[in-house]
């Protein structure tokens, strides 16, 4: 029975990333023929075609190749762990980590998380992929990020998640609004029925906010839709309407000037869950687990 080697797997990981035998050989500091031979042998051993080779379009991964590359990442990281354990270096992390993040959460959470992570794991090169909730799920499935910091709205099957925080929705109104000086600074959503709404219009977030209106028995009067969190706040501050949001900004003065007034909602609405999400079908890398641990430590949670 034929077996593939760890060297073949490492070669494949680089070829899959670059989709080029020539560039992979240059990075690996070996000959192109060595890489080509290793890839051909790996395909024969697996009995599967991992690449499409076309002189006009170059080298492309097949569907099987993409799945194999996705599964391989965690495997190679654990292979490195075995090697490091033998030499007493298992506590040292290095390499690359890509973290997806939901756009409205980025400015609230990432700076502090990255500062804590780099203080402990300065050898890891962290990059971020900022996107909406739907795009982050796609990026996770395609292996373009190792894990994602996001809300759980619309989360599909095939993912594992760890809840970091539950954030209740609140309303913001412009300074001078009739509700701005409400006792206790709280209001029911139905008290704003008919007033113009500035909607944070992002996939899955949109559906979450619409569900809150449905629970309150209120038909929203959407005046403007924006994908930017600060744009929504700026339009509210200038008196164009009110907004329904989750993350509370400590500074109530947006970019446009003016001021927004946050109000607690008396309605019993489900909160948004801030969570770490990764694929069920792949082994998490040590770098990803270390990032999770930092997040859990900062949020006062513990791994189950």
From TrEMBL:
Pfam families, per database record: HTH_1, LysR_substrate
SUPFAM superfamilies: Periplasmic binding protein-like II, Winged helix' DNA-binding domain
Coiled coil regions in record: none
Record-level Gene Ontology MF annotations: DNA binding; DNA-binding transcription factor activity
Keyword Transcription regulation annotated: yes
Domain HTH lysR-type intervals: 4-62
Cellular compartments per GO CC: protein-DNA complex
Similarity comment text for this entry: Belongs to the LysR transcriptional regulatory family.
Protein name, as recorded: LysR family transcriptional regulator
Organism per entry: Cryobacterium ruanii
């Amino acid at each position: 029975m034929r077996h593939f080697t760890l060297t073949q797997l490492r070669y494949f990981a680089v070829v899959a990333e670059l989709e080029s035998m020539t560039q992979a050989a240059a990075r690996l500091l070996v000959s192109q023929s060595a890489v080509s031979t290793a890839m051909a042998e790996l395909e024969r051993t697996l009995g599967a075609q991992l690449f499409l080779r076309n002189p006009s379009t170059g080298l492309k991964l097949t569907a099987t190749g993409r799945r194999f590359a996705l599964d391989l990442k965690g495997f190679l990281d654990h292979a490195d762990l075995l090697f490091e354990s033998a030499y007493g270096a298992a506590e040292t992390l290095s390499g690359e980590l890509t973290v997806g993040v939901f756009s409205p959460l980025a400015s609230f959470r990432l700076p502090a998380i990255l500062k804590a992570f780099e203080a402990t794991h300065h050898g890891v090169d962290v990059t971020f992929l900022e996107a909406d909730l739907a795009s982050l799920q796609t990026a996770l499935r395609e292996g373009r990020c190792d894990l994602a910091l996001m809300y759980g709205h619309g989360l599909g099957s095939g993912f594992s998640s760890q809840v970091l925080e539950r954030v209740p929705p609140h309303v913001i109104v412009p300074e001078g609004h009739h509700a701005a000086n409400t006792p206790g600074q709280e209001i029911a959503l139905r008290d704003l029925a008919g007033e113009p709404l500035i909607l944070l219009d992002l996939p899955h977030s949109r559906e979450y906010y619409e569900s809150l209106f449905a629970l309150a028995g209120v038909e929203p009067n959407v005046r403007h839709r924006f994908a930017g969190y600060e744009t929504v706040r700026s339009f509210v501050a200038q008196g164009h309407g009110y907004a329904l949001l989750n993350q509370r900004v400590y500074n109530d003065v947006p970019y446009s000037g003016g001021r927004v007034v946050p109000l607690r909602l008396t309605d019993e609405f489900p909160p948004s869950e801030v969570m770490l999400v990764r694929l069920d079908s792949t082994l998490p890398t040590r770098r990803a687990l270390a990032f999770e641990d930092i997040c859990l430590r900062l949020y006062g949670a513990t791994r189950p």
